[in-house]
Amino acid sequence: MPTKSVSSASVTTRDRSRHTKADESISSETHFLKVDGGQIAYDDTGGDGPLILAIPGMGDLRSEYRLLCPILQNVGYRVVTMDVRGFGETSAQWPDYSAHAVGRDALALIEHLQARSAVILGNSFAAGAALWAAHDAPMHVSKVVLLGPIVRDLKVSWFAMLTLQLGFAGPWRVWFWATYWNSLFPTHKPADQGRVKAAIMKNLREPGRMAALRTMIGLSKADTAALIARSRVPALVVMGSRDPDFPDAEAEAQWLATQLHADSLMIDGAGHYPHTEMPEQVASELLSFIARVHG
Questions:
Q1: What residue ranges do the domains of the chain occupy?
Q2: Which CATH superfamily hosts domain 3-292?
Q3: How far is CA 69 from each of CA 105, 121, 162, 173, rounded to the nearest angstrom?
Q4: Are strands 263-267 and 3-6 parallel, antiparallel or unpaired?
Q5: What share of the chain is helix, strand, coil (3-state, %, to 5)?
Q6: Torsion sign across C-alpha atoms 246, 170, 222, 58
Q7: CA spacing 20 to 30 A to 138: which of 75, 128, 170, 269?
Q8: Are 100 and 223 in contact (CB under 8 A)?
Q9: How far is Cα 52 from Cα 142, in angstroms, rounded to an integer?
Q10: DSSP symbol at 83
């Protein structure tokens, strides 16, 4: 399928500031949904527009969609963002932290919101959760947008493996993760990056959360990888050209798009969070995808 590349040159400091300010006006009231094993925290822009459910990656908070959310809301969508198992205000301890389990949480939330169907956005490992939700209940998931998707086990060098083991070995583990997270924004760090980083570090110091992260990192994605060829949900793959989680981000995007019979979008200069670094560009293509592709 075709790969579209979008330059980062059009993103201005004024634009990024505008959306940071817009985010401040959106209610951040937390809602909770009880499911088997714990409770899921989420926020909801409300309204009667079509539902978009946004799921963050591991070790992150639902605030990762804070710059994309107001753009989608302003054109009429109801946007719900959730904290995944182990992080944010969602319960820390669970018997299962897999992408499939998070996909079931997403479906429970869609049902709870009494929505006929939803577009699911999934970042990093949560891209797999979006695919699992669409597989388990295709009538409730009309489309998926996969942002910096990690949906198969990647080859890791011995040096990277050693660094990871040392990074999680001592009392510096929260600092290690936050430093790594900060490196995933190679071109544009939002104005509130320091505040968000501090919130992530504070959250990971809560009981059980770092253990959840270590468990999640160690999980194989073989089950999700096996699902990809069977997936039939309309999908858009969005990848930053400088995403350090992949030796060749464009090749990974093309591989996944081919497997899913989907289009891929490369955001020039972006890292693992293209929707946070270049929210206007991602939103434009995301909305175009939703408009032209019927679920």
A1: 3-292
A2: Alpha/Beta hydrolase fold, catalytic domain (3.40.50.1820)
A3: 20, 11, 37, 30
A4: parallel
A5: 45, 15, 40
A6: negative
A7: 75
A8: yes
A9: 10
A10: P
* Token code pair at residue 51: 């539902």
pLDDT per residue over 11-51, tens digit each?
333 343 333 333 333 346 899 999 999 999 999 999 999 99
Calpha distance 115→49 (Å, rounded): 10
59-90 pLDDT, tens per residue?
999 999 999 999 999 999 999 999 999 999 99
The pLDDT tens digits for 137-150 are 999 999 999 999 99
Q: Identify whether the C-beta of residue 219 lies closer than 8 Å to the C-beta of residue 98.
A: yes
The strand order across the sheet containing 263-267 reads 3-6, 263-267, 235-240, 141-147, 118-123, 51-55, 78-82, 38-44, 31-35
**Listed residue (115, 155, 35, 131) closest to 83, CA to CA:** 35
Residue type, 174: V
Q: DSSP for 94-127?
A: -S--SHHHHHHHHHHHHHHTT-S-EEEEEETTHH
Amino acid, single-letter form, for residue 184: L
What CA–CA distance (Å, rounded) separates 294 from 271?
29
- For the chain, the first-to-last Cα distance in angstroms comes to 18
Task: Name residue 82's amino acid.
Answer: M
Contact 52, 80 (CB under 8 A): yes
HSE on the CB side for 112, CA within 13 Å?
18
Euclidean distance between CA atoms 12 and 24, whole angstroms: 19
CB atoms within 10 A of CB 293: 14
